[in-house]
Design brief:
A: mainly alpha, MetI-like fold, two-stranded antiparallel sheet, B: Rossmann fold, OB fold (Dihydrolipoamide Acetyltransferase, E2P), six-stranded mixed sheet, elongated
């Protein structure tokens, strides 16, 4: 008969035992503090392990009598043993687990924050407990294992009390996502908020915030009288313009593809891939090649009409053009789904009610596209706000928030408080835009999918609208093709505008390989280091991003629990936070203990996970809501637990969403710049920040050659993954019966 | 392989309530319901949509947890046990076959998590397919089967686990009428051969009458009546049940007197003697089935005088609407050759033991 009898009565707790063992391993075996190299190289075993302070597990740290505050963890790791022989339904079982988990986790956090590199972190602690003759560094593997053990002991306790139908996996997953979002989204943002109030001598003051907040460089309106305006106004005006223009252009594209007899629709769709695989500042570079002082167009105009070359493109016009070019495809991507989603039968109904094509478009189609338009605007707005590369390359004297933040952190004027204040203003703008979008959409229903088969056909665009739309799309397309040709061509030109001979020089400088006689390869090109790092970081962060995103989507679509709405808000928040803000908040939060990860590859991976996770969540939610819930339920009633259900039923049916999330996060990790620029280090330099460095040295040739190589690598990656998607689909349709059983 | 099920267990609810949202102000989907389902019987939960029958079923499955009260399966309190840990399986309205697994993999799915050896999983799954008459379909994908076949795969998948309780959630609603009759007979046959405890949810009263040992009629989150199909049809407890199960004429009447187990009931001069069923002397409600109305020549003694208003020929019987002073009556007549036309004067009486007094 079914062997579930003993798990039912609930005295065996395999999951609990597993986490206890992990906790003990963290306590007794692994180094408590972070070690120099990766823990998996096991170099720490030879550096005085287990007694040397740097690599000792907490147990030895504690009994050597120095770091006595670490020993209490053991109490909470021993406690759960007393819960092992009690059935899950016993209230004492749950109580023991909750108390041990919560207190253990709490103690770990409290001691981590209280004691830093210089002993006590807070003055009042010193006056209360006396000076501490010791200090501690960032937490490492041991601490991480112990912390996860406490977290999952706590969630198992909560599950045993009957939360979410007593499901260990679901409660654990919720606890895990909440914890990582709290650590890597809320904590850095909150930390940044407080550092906006910190004065030079490390005390808190509101006046210092107001002093920095009311700075003329931030809110000045000098440009109205021919001077310079503040960065906040510049950013805001630029973002609104970019949002509006990209939305209109994106809509024009979407209309051409769905509602005209245009023949090269596939070609237009291919454009949507471009922004994803193009590093954002590359467009800016191409603009310089065209309109800069020695740009093609500038020289042509100077030679034929005799207008002296000016630097007009450096500033608002150049940044605007570059951003519109870079972000229009994103608006297109959003709007094409929406334009296609408008139910044709509604439009047909309008036509049978004697509306002509123009009236139908104006009164039915367009209003139904409203959520899409709002989303497209919002995306353009946020992307423009966060964009770092184009303003840096083209900005000239046109200061925007993202570059100002950068210079406040890395410039000569190093001013952490000012960076925090600027980041807060930026954050306020984007969150404000989010709120405004919600407000504008209101509570109206825009549901156009009726769930019934819709055999209607979209009406064609009215003539009066079709002609301008074609015109706009045509000009834009030619412009884009020119830009990308410029990029490829530019990578072969010796020195643009000065020495126009063709050469492979830039590629050789960047990617040369020396073969010695023994056949040993040496990567001598200057770009290889950052290239491999980028590939490695992208390859690590992509699957993690997809995993976290899909688990979150599963929790949001499939489970009901208290606080689900705030949970959703928390996981989507990082989407509204510009990369620049993430970057600043991460270096402020993570270059001191307890989590000291700046300068490592970990911080890059973590920042990518939380930057790109919302896309994985959205993709997962979209496909999961198409899977009937009875599939999960039948799996549950057939005796599979929710983890087995997730693994055997949900995941196999989600392959397309998984691949989409993988592609997106992989490619995004390779092209991202705004957060990355703050987080790279000598050891972990990313391709994009390396390229920006070249640009700042006016080494345009190398920068463009590197960018072109990146674009080609990513095209290959996208193609490869799309091939995989295709294959899985066929595999599913003709799925072979398994012959194993 | 699939023998008479020795594991079949009883199911009981003790004052179970399920409230969605706020416990005091939220929607009460099930309100203080107590039921007892004996082992080895097929019990149907019947009612209009939104009456709480599916919620009740899902609480037996462990897919919903009661807000208050106690659920027992056999001798075990399962109130807070999640679905995974209950020995219950369920056939879903949508069948919920896993589209990415073959038929055999679908049927083996639950066995995989029950600690059987691989060879035994295979044997049991094949036996299950054999039981529902789908030998040789194991390698197909669900999308390659007809609706009826998919339904049987869903049944086989639930059956092979030999659960303590087998649940059906409107299993036939996606089948056409002819197939529905055949499949429900098959389900009943398997249930009786294997001695399973089955809880079956439907909103189709004919289906409920055909398959059940007992029917629990639910309305507005509470039990309206609980009894055998014959009890419910012949002696509905109240107006709702009379109306919901089969068709019924519900008439206002007057109880003149009650003597022991006989009440004298009067309708516009027509007198009937009936069991009083807790009614008191005074106005009351009388229910009578359309096929138990006897139509005679006008002017007969102790009868209702009426006039035929509408006659509809529906093949194997006539449907008549007759106007009387006690109200409009809906009647059926097997005598399809009777010369009844609209406007014909008739007398109406009720067959013996046919009418029942309804509790309010």
């Amino acid at each position: 008969m079914r062997a579930i009898a003993e798990t039912k009565s609930g005295s065996a707790h395999p999951t609990l035992i597993l986490w206890l063992i992990i906790g003990w391993a963290g306590f007794f075996v692994f180094p408590w503090y972070g070690v120099e190299d990766s823990v998996f190289t096991f170099g720490w075993l030879f550096e005085g392990y287990p007694l040397d302070d740097d690599v000792a597990p907490v147990f030895f740290q504690g009994i050597s009598g120095q770091k006595g505050w670490l020993l209490p963890h053991l109490i909470f790791l021993i406690g759960p043993i007393f819960a092992l022989n009690r059935p899950r339904s016993d209230p004492l079982h749950a109580k023991i687990l909750i108390i041990c988990g919560a207190l253990g986790f709490g103690w770990l956090i409290a001691q981590g924050f209280s004691i830093g590199i210089r002993g006590w972190n807070f003055g009042w602690q010193e006056s209360l407990f006396g000076p501490l003759g010791d200090r501690q560094f960032g937490m490492g593997t041991g601490a991480m294992l112990v912390a996860s053990a406490f977290l999952f002991i706590l969630t198992q306790g909560i599950a045993a009390r009957g939360a979410v139908n007593g499901d260990i996996f679901v409660v654990g997953a919720i606890g895990f996502v909440i914890t990582i979002v709290a650590i890597f989204v809320f904590y850095p943002i909150f930390n940044m908020l407080t550092s906006a109030f910190v004065t030079q001598d490390n005390s808190y003051s509101i006046s210092v915030f107001f002093e920095k907040f009311t700075d003329r460089r931030l809110w000045g309106l000098g440009c109205l009288q021919g001077g310079r305006c503040g960065a906040a106004w510049n950013s805001l005006v630029l973002a609104i313009l970019v949002g509006m223009i990209t939305t209109v252009l994106g809509l024009a594209f979407a209309l051409v593809v769905t509602r005209t007899g245009f023949r090269f629709k596939r070609g237009l769709r291919a454009l949507t891939v471009l922004p994803i695989i193009t590093p954002p500042f590359v467009i800016g570079l191409a603009i310089i090649l065209l309109f800069g002082l020695s740009g093609n167009v500038t020289r042509f105009v100077a030679d034929t009409i005799g207008i002296a070359p000016t630097r007009w493109v450096y500033g608002m016009p150049g940044v605007l053009i570059a951003q519109v070019l870079a972000f229009t495809p994103i608006a297109f991507l959003v709007l094409i789904g929406v334009v296609e989603g408008v139910s044709p039968s509604m439009e047909e109904a309008a036509q049978t009610l004697r509306a002509n094509r123009w009236e139908t478009f104006r009164t039915v189609s367009l209003p139904l596209m409203r959520p899409g338009l709002a989303n497209a605007f919002l995306l353009g707005f946020i992307e423009s706000m966060a964009d770092f590369g184009n303003p840096l390359v083209l900005g000239g004297n046109f200061d925007v928030l993202s570059t100002e933040i950068f210079f406040a952190i890395v410039g000569a004027q190093y001013d952490q408080g000012r960076a925090a204040v600027l980041a807060l203003v930026l954050l306020a703008f984007t969150l404000g835009a989010f709120w405004a979008q919600r407000f504008w959409l209101g509570k109206k229903s825009y549901t156009t999918m009726t769930g019934k088969g819709d055999s209607g056909v979209h009406p064609l665009l009215p003539k009066g609208l079709a002609i301008p739309v074609y015109l706009v799309v045509g000009i834009w397309t030619i412009f884009t093709i020119t830009i990308y040709t410029m990029i490829i061509y530019g990578s072969f030109v010796e020195l643009w505008g000065v020495k126009n001979t063709l050469t492979f020089k830039h590629y050789i400088t960047a990617f040369s390989i020396d073969f010695t006689q023994e056949g040993v390869r040496k990567y001598t090109g200057s770009a290889w280091d950052s290239f491999w790092t980028t590939l490695q970081i992208a390859a690590i962060s992509a699957p993690l991003t997809a995993a976290v995103g899909l688990v979150t989507a599963y929790l949001l679509t499939r489970q009901n629990f208290a606080g689900k709405n705030s949970f959703e808000f928390g996981t989507m928040l990082s989407f509204a936070i510009p990369g620049t803000v993430i970057g600043v908040s991460y270096i402020l939060a993570f270059n001191v203990p307890p989590l000291e990860i700046t300068g490592t590859g970990v911080i890059l991976v973590v920042s990518f996970i939380f930057r790109n996770m919302p896309v994985g969540v959205r993709a997962g939610i979209a496909s999961m809501s198409q899977l009937d819930k009875s599939l999960d339920e039948s799996s549950l009633t057939l005796g599979a637990n929710s983890w087995q259900t997730f693994l055997n039923v949900i995941l196999p049916l989600l392959k397309p969403a998984i691949l989409a999330a993988l592609v997106y996060s992989f490619v995004r990790a390779m092209t991202a710049i705004s957060a990355v620029i703050f987080l790279v280090s000598a050891e972990y330099n990313m391709a994009t920040s390396y390229i920006i460095g070249r640009v700042e040295n006016n080494d345009y040739g190398l920068a463009i050659a590197y960018s072109t190589s990146l674009i080609i690598v990513m095209l290959a990656a996208v193609g490869l993954l799309q091939l995989l998607v295709g294959r899985t689909n066929i595999g599913r349709r003709h799925s072979q019966p398994s012959s194993k059983n | 392989m699939l023998n008479k099920n020795s594991k079949a267990a009883s199911v009981s609810f003790h004052n179970v309530s399920k409230v969605y949202g706020n416990p005091t102000t939220g929607v009460r989907a099930v309100d203080d319901v107590s039921i007892n389902i004996e082992a080895g019987t097929l019990v149907t939960l019947l009612g209009p949509s939104g009456c709480g029958k599916t919620t009740t079923l899902r609480m037996i499955a462990g897919l919903e947890m009661p807000t208050s009260g106690k659920v027992m399966i056999g001798d075990m309190d399962v109130t807070n046990l999640p679905a995974t840990d209950r020995d219950v399986s369920m056939v879903f309205q949508s069948y919920a076959l896993f589209p990415h697994m073959s038929v055999l993999e679908n049927v083996s799915y639950g066995l995989k998590f029950s600690g059987f050896k691989k060879s035994e999983i295979q044997d049991r799954a094949l036996a299950g397919l054999n039981l529902v008459g789908l030998d040789g379909y194991g390698d197909r994908l669900p999308s390659e089967l007809s609706g009826g076949q998919q339904q049987r795969v869903a049944v086989a998948r639930a059956l092979v686990l030999e659960p303590q309780v087998l649940l059906f959630d409107e299993p036939l609603s996606n089948l056409d009428a002819k197939l529905r009759r055949r499949v429900r007979e098959e389900i009943r046959e398997i249930q009786q051969n294997l001695g399973l405890t089955v809880v079956y949810v439907t909103h189709d009263q004919e289906e409920a009458l055909a398959v059940s040992d007992r029917i629990i009629v639910m309305n507005n989150a509470v039990i309206a009546q609980d009894g055998t199909p014959r009890d419910l049809y012949d002696a509905p407890a109240n107006r709702f049940v009379a109306d919901f199960i089969g068709e019924a004429n519900i008439l206002d009447c007057q109880i003149v007197s009650i003597e022991g187990n006989q009440a004298l009931v009067e309708l516009d001069g027509y007198n009937v003697r009936l069991p009083p069923r807790d009614n008191q002397v005074g106005p009351a409600l009388l229910g009578v089935r359309p096929n138990r109305i006897v139509i005679g020549k006008p002017g007969a003694a102790n009868s209702l005088a009426g006039e035929v208003v509408r006659v509809t020929y529906v093949g194997n019987h006539l449907e008549l609407t007759i106007k009387t002073n006690a109200g409009e009556l809906f009647a059926t007549s097997d005598d399809v050759d009777a010369p009844l036309e609209s406007g014909t004067k008739v007398s109406v009486t009720f067959a013996k033991n046919a009418p029942v007094l309804l509790k309010n």
